[in-house]
Amino acid sequence: MDCRVETIPVAGAAAVPQTMCTTVHGHVIFADAGAAYALQNVTFGHELESLNAWTRLGTASNIDEFAAGLDDVAYNFNVLYADDDGNIAYWHIGHVPVRAAGANPLFPTPGTGEYEWQGILPFDQNPHSRNPDQGWLASWNNKPAPGWANSSADFWRWGGAHRVNTFMDFLEGVAPGTATTRTLELLNRTGGWTTDTPSGQASSVFVSSYFDEMLASVDRTADPRLDAIAHLLKNWDHLQTDRDGDGYYDHPGGTIFNAWWSALSDRVFADDTAALIDRFVIGNLIDRMYAGSAAGLPLVHDYLDGESVAQATTASLIAAIDSLEAAFGSDDPDDWQQPISVISWSPVGVGTVPDTIWVNRGTYNQIVYLGAGSRLSAENVISPGQSGDPASPHFADQLELYATWQYKPMRLTERDLRGHTESVETLAGP
User: Fold this and answer.
1) What's the mean per-residue pLDDT of the chain?
2) CA 185 → CA 80, 100, 194, 402, distances in Å?
3) Which runs of consecutive H residues, i.e. helices, occur in 162-308?
4) What does the alpha-carbon distance between residue 130 and residue 83 come to, in Å, rounded to a whole number?
5) Rounded distance, CA 173 to CA 176, Å?
6) Residue 184 pLDDT more than 90?
């Protein structure tokens, strides 16, 4: 190892010396009892090279020039492209190591020499798509392509149960050539309002993936309450909204689905899996349960304990109804009002920012319309505001726009700036 001592100053206390070591496999991140763990990373030593390549993407004049510079970026990103010639494209970029036979990237790899990387995967083997027949591309932190090795951090979040299904379901219903800026505004709003499980958990949006399969598997004759509940759910739009502002979601569908999903998960898996198993793992086990033998990776254990999928699904909905009647003291679904989840904005120092209803969306949203000639236009919103200074008037001046699903126009040309410039700062060279 190559080691050095870094001295870390500490406010109000003595400086702390820290020994930092590096091996041929990267920086040592933990050492104990004669063993050291190093993190090997394809980006080490390629940081500036990657930054320069990323910066050059903004100078490309067409799709081929843009694509030619992607291989020089070592970091993993999902990159989407569109231009005013009508091209759209997607690349999963970054340098991906080719691992030695027998190496398991889910466990520490012995550093004794026989498991060395065998090079970098050729860039054209990374997932990519250019001008697909479907006419659209969507990405929301999902797996980049079927069959792609799940060896990254948070790999358990990749599978059939994913919030990107909300976007895909929406886009499949958009007729070719009809999409407008308003279409994307509605797409963003639909994604943000779609019920997550449990509410307030951004990534676990299981209603988009399994609602239809769950409802179709219910035996409505098994309980006199099921027919009315199934009819109510059939007419639910999957959204969790509070349009009257009373602090409760408008429709009991989300309340029922969340209780049903929890009951189904417990009924099928609680006796087989550890109590702390990740909810995404459960979601993808349920994915394989409904897919059966058609699943790419079918279940090999009888989690159903001899029940059929329909029996487990029906029994779990009955259990959910029982629990909701007990919790709300009523057998009327209109009384099953779930309190809204909120986003709490916490500025540091001065001022306060009010809570807003929970939405499953980024705090920065941008919609761009690309067309020939002068048709380029764009709109965006950043919440709570552009400035990170709580004392600035622009710290939270976009919160109302954000909370009400509105956008402000982006000023893309010098002419656009006229009448909208608040201040000008000129940078002068030496």
Assistant:
1) 90
2) 18, 46, 14, 12
3) 164-172, 181-193, 207-216, 226-234, 253-269, 279-291
4) 12
5) 9
6) yes
CA distances from 87 to 64, 136, 229, 315, 370 (A): 11, 10, 46, 49, 10
Closest by CA position to 316, among listed 177, 213, 199: 213
Separation of alpha carbons 291 and 304, rounded Å: 14
Residue 221 has which token pair?
Answer: 């004759």
Q: Cα torsion at 60, 66, 71, 72 (round to 10°)?
A: 10
| Radius of gyration, alpha carbons of the chain | 26
Q: Residues 204-246: pLDDT tens digits?
A: 899 999 999 999 999 999 999 999 999 999 999 999 999 999 9
Tell whether pTM > 0.70. Answer: yes
Give the integer Cα–Cα distance in Å for 181 and 174.
13
Rounded to whole angstroms, the Cα distance separating 210 from 205 reads: 10
Q: Per-residue b/e over 248-265, b at no fewer than 16 CB within 10 Å?
A: ebebbbbbbbbbbbbbbb
